[in-house]
Task: inverse folding
């Protein structure tokens, strides 16, 4: 049996501002942006070379809106692996991505925590 996680839902406040961040600042590709009616859209973004995509899901109602930017209670939520940490760290800083710490060297690789436009925490990581 072959199964793959193709997408993860990420609750966002606004489709277009989320696309602007993930495509414009992180350099992701926009895979889908399909209107579904009633202002809803099927929007998927992710690294151009593949991997799991993010399904940008606009918050629907106060309960979902309360979780925008805090889908994991303040823990690192997503892990963006790179083949060149120094290149991507400098690129992200230049594009205004907010890092919460200086790069550090761990047994598993080089890593630094950054926030997306809503405050979700990510690891930028280059594995050993």
Result:
């Amino acid at each position: 049996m072959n199964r793959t996680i193709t997408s993860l839902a990420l609750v966002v406040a606004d489709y277009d501002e989320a696309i602007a961040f993930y495509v414009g600042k992180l350099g992701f590709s926009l895979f889908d942006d399909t209107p579904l009616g009633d202002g809803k859209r099927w929007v998927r973004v992710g690294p151009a070379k593949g991997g799991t995509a993010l399904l940008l899901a606009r918050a629907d109602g106060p309960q979902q809106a309360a979780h925008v930017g805090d889908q994991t209670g303040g823990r690192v939520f997503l892990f963006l692996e790179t083949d060149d940490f120094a290149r991507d760290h400098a690129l992200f800083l230049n594009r205004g991505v907010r890092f919460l710490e200086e790069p550090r060297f761990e047994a598993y690789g080089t890593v630094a925590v950054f926030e997306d436009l809503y405050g979700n925490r990510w690891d930028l990581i280059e594995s050993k």
The chain has a mean pLDDT of 96.
